[in-house]
Fold:
Amino acid sequence: MANWQHQASQYLWKGDYSQAAILYEKAIEAHPEIKSYYWYLGLILLLQGQEAEAQTTWLLAMAEGDSDRVEIWTRELIDILQEEAIGRAELADYKVAWVIRQHIREIAPDNLDNLLKVIDLAIKADLFTEDETILSEVVQLLQLDISPDVDINILLQVLEDILESYPLHSHALDFTEACAELQNISLNYSQAFSQILFDQTKSLMDKIPPKAAINFLKICYRIEPQNISILASLANLYQDTGRYLESLEFAQQMLKLSQLSEDKIAAQYLIVRGLVQAGGYWEEADRNYQDMEREIHILIEGNNIVNKDHFVNLIGTVVFSNYFGDNPQKSHQLRNKVSAFCQAGIHRYYADTDPLYHHSILSKCQNVTARPLKIGYLSSCFRRHSVGWIARWLFKYHDQDKVRVYAYSTNYANDNVQGAIANSASHFHDVSKAKTVREIAEHIYQDEIDILIDLDSLTFSGASGVMALKSAPIQVTWLGSDASGLPAIDYFIADPYILPESAQDYYKAEIWRLPKTYVAVDGFEVGVPTLRRDLLDIENDAVVYLSAQTGYKRHPDTVRLQMKIIKEVPNSYLLIKGLADEESIKYLFKQIAEEAGLSQNRLRFLSMVASEEIHRANLGIADIILDTYPYNGATTTLETLWMCIPLVTKVGQQFAARNSYTMMMNAGITEGISWSDDEYVEWGIRLGKDEALRQEVVWKLRQSRHTSPLWNGKQFTREMEKAYEEMWRRYLDTSGGI
Structure:
């Protein structure tokens, strides 16, 4: 290398581009036939941001050559640019390296290796965008053929980066598909590709819409069709997207392949859930549930080794008993047994957290009145969800002089309900990215929470896994799906009506009864209705009944009672609405209507609407709401009463069969409360035939808005705070004031 070239190189690396350019310009003047001088001069201009001048310099140098010479010169130029790009990337100067490779892309658009490195650099420099077209160019080249010169490591790195950061890119799925087709390149590539795909797809399930995640999982499924984890994920996602019956293919295949009891239970759970969500498959669902219960007993009594992740999921498998029947003593015996087994298992895996909290925290809390209590709320439902709609009032009205409110959300949702809760809480923590229940429990423990309230219970079992680690000295269950039965739970919030007096005999936690109601709201937002009677071909003077519940709650015995009511009330119609498999629900109701001798013309099936606000507005089309049993409505009942519509419910013994009862009692309404099948039908018929009675109930409900504890979120919050204070006093007394 000539001395001047060494000097130019030094200028180049020091960033003194002007001096380097002067040297190369002089060299070109002296030796215009040496093309490499033009390549370096263009590079220097490029680094100075003079991209057009750089292109011109290169094109002028090539203008005189024939096609063969131009091809040689182009390779020389690319080599020089690549060398510079590699050097810049090694110095973490990703943006400059990206700019250089973009010019290589213009010169050699079919250079797959370079395109992959452009993407890699763009992601590192935070320059990659969702509308970037380069990924489609890569896909096209991969589909044609792959050159042996392509850096497989870069290909895999780009795949991992795209799946991790840009899974919703318009060509991300095509790119993944194209990479999947290359598995015959080598065994090492095939193994590395599969590992990246499986690992990233697991995390994708929590980051992208279920429909999109299904597409990536299907690629995994094609590669490993007997992978139990993939089958379980596909079944879950199909159910999350309303494809309940299609999910059964994967769940049943999972059951056939399962050797361990824990896997069999997981598969049976998915089968049962798919069947009950679809609606209309109660006998088959019940048989599968009984099989699952037997497998649970085998697992527990056999004292088998269970994967730590299965302990958390196993807690939630017992939730279905409340949908099949009303036998709380039997249900809670199983819940308590399963929850105790799972809690012990979780403690074994996290041996240093048994229990997590210790008395060093308590030494700071000599007296309940010395400082505000730290109250923690844990839920995946701090969003537009039944729990969120109800809990937001508690957050709004908490007295900040008495309590410091900490919310731990295991589900991120950028909506108005989560926003309202976050703004009302003293501290709002998004823990949705936590990888283990231990991580969430540790966060709660570090915040030194005095009383931790689980709002999910068995609705989402992840919260139960956190509660099992006992990260606060007092732990409580409120809302959710009844009590979980965990030994780590101290209290279950109830009221005078929601549970019978005998319930404490089979509840693991102590039942803490608030004086009036276990739930209260100030009201609900109501939108503009989208339903009209004429649009449904229903006469204005007809009597309209409505049943709005999910497939979970469509027990055929209750549907038969509803058909009896419609048959006995002249000029009446039943509207059916709720999440379920559309065809399955239609078949269920039409079949039972036919058995009852009722014309199918008396039934109307409603589609889902865009928002809860519209749903509430549409309730106004009904004269009477018919509740479900053995699992009543909860939020739907609150919404019905808020809209001042008469309701017919059947009261049972379990928590799920008494929600409507406690809400109606607190609203001052006894009309419509039944204790037997006959009474349910009688109230349904009576309210349908007696318009004056309906109007009387409507008037009472309107008046209740101004007087009922059900519609007084502030007073309810004061009652909850009193309960917390008393729980804390008891705790200090039993712990010796430590």
